[in-house]
Amino acid sequence: MTDTSTNQHTTEQPAPPVPRSAVRARWSVALLFVIMGLAIGGWSARVPEVRDAVGVGNTGWGLANIATNAGELISLVVVAVLISRINTRRLALAGAALILVNAPLLAASTTVVALVGGLAVWGFAANLLATPMNAQSVEVQKRYGRPILSTFHAGFSIGMLAGGLCGTGAAAIGMSPSAQMAVTSVLLGALLVGTHRWLPDTPRQETKDGEDRRRLRDRFTPQLLLLAVIAFLASFIEMAGAQWSALYATEVAGAAAVLAAATYTCLSLAATVARLFGDRLAGRFGRIRFVRLSALVATVGVALPVAYPHPAAVMAGFGLLGFGLACVTPTVLGFAGEQPGLTSGEGVSVVAMGQWPGALLAAPVIGLLAGALDLRSAFVVVAVMALAVVALIGRVRATALPGESPVPPRP
């Protein structure tokens, strides 16, 4: 009779200890995610005051924010070209520094020109930081040998929450938006100065005359294009939920304003919780299977309020949507950064190009569909998009990390 417990004990190898340098790198990259989140949260909390100081209405405010999209688009192109040439650490530090310097200046805007200029710089700086820091997070994950990307994005979510709380507290004591953003920028800048040496770099390829254009074109492999499509769908679904959850609760389910706000809060908290614990589930199930299950949860989350538009069902549904979608994009970015023959920065830059229009188009497309049909019918399209993620993720080829369950074979 065989002692199976003994055999199991002898075949299982303990996970190697994580090097101290990898732990430091993880904390330093996590700080970049927190900087991004805190800046967005702190700014969002004080938007009404800044808008009143500038003296524009809703239409003017919406038009001014086009500058953010323009800055992001320019930065996408710039980063795509530079990511294989320039030290990724320098790109990330430049983006973070630009955000910290621009934030109090943007919050101090009193004219339309200053507002538009600040928003354009914000959009440029945000992507100048986003692509390198996501590539760096992939490098840290390689050092750990197990899924850890979702915890970085949890840092972004926690930063947004902390920024919102800072804005609320600053408003309560009468501190101006610019002073609030200046204080947070100084504190975060001090932390960045103390940890910037720990930031990892990503591999770069040597360039030759005439080779850059070929390499840029060659990044668009079938696998990266597939991952870019998945990132587009995930970004669209996530932003549709974030931007329309409260309106769905009021217009479709007839919920009161408090319940509508609670619906958005439920989605945000569920997403944060998922990002805190998602890496463990990804390691246990395998990342491909984990994304498939996550997208299925998101599909159920969208279908529930569509099928049963009751306030309780709407709140539960959007909570499931937030929980299911929260870890999809981080995991997809991880796959992009592991593509053979490309650096992590090059792979992430391609997927970032697919992710950006998804977030940009979510609000207007859902609005147009709601106007042509109704909001409930518009979210049927969102459910179909979530099912598309379930189908497409099975076509992704990925190698399991040492601390991850093996990737299931493709049928």
Automatic annotation (TrEMBL):
Domain Major facilitator superfamily (MFS) profile: 224-411
Domain of life (superkingdom): Bacteria
Record's subcellular location: Cell membrane
Membrane-spanning segments: 27-46, 66-84, 91-107, 113-130, 151-173, 179-199, 220-240, 252-278, 290-308, 314-336, 348-369, 375-394
Record-linked Pfam families: MFS_1 (PF07690)
UniProt-listed PROSITE patterns: MFS
GO cellular component: plasma membrane
SUPFAM superfamilies registered for this protein in UniProt: MFS general substrate transporter (SSF103473)
Keywords (A to Z) from UniProt: Membrane, Transmembrane, Transmembrane helix
Membrane protein topology class: Multi-pass membrane protein
InterPro entries xrefs: MFS, MFS_dom, MFS_trans_sf, MFS_Transporter
Signal peptide start-end: none
GO MF annotations, alphabetized: transmembrane transporter activity
Name of protein: Fucose permease
Species of provenance: Micromonospora marina
